[in-house]
Amino acid sequence: MTQSREQSINFLKARHEEQFPIGIILxxxxxxxxxxxxxxxxxxxxxxxxxxxSTVESHSGKLIxxxxxxxxxxxxxGRFHYYEGYxxxxxxxxxxxxxxxxxxxxxxxxxCGSVNPDFKKTDLMIMTSxxxxxFDTPLKKKN
Length: 143
Prior knowledge:
The protein is an alpha/beta fold. α1 crosses α2. Helices cover 17% and strands 21% of the residues. The chain contains 2 helices and 5 strands, in the order αββββαβ. The protein has a 5-stranded mixed sheet, with no helix packed on it. The protein has one domain (3-140): Nucleoside phosphorylase domain (Rossmann fold, 3-Layer(aba) Sandwich). The mean pLDDT is 84.
């Protein structure tokens, strides 16, 4: 484990002793789900050592600890993008931190387009595959 990841994990573990086995990354369009979370604490990304800071206007940039439908969850209200100038290691850094915090199930959301004319704006869909146009991918590395 890298020293920077360890610093982030220690900072967060000092604030929460209980387990949060479910992680949710609230991408564009689902940030409002926070209103349904019973929040125990919310930490700005800028307060977490070594954590990237989201530059996208609609991404609040907070790590939310709480419960949703009676389940302990940790939610990322906003995320980081390769197109913001972050490296793939920086983009995936929070995922490694969440894993070390005990997240076993990760739900990731994003705004995505479709070529299906039957889909309407705001329709929810489950992606089963994608085409990776970023040939510099963290999937090449051992994670």
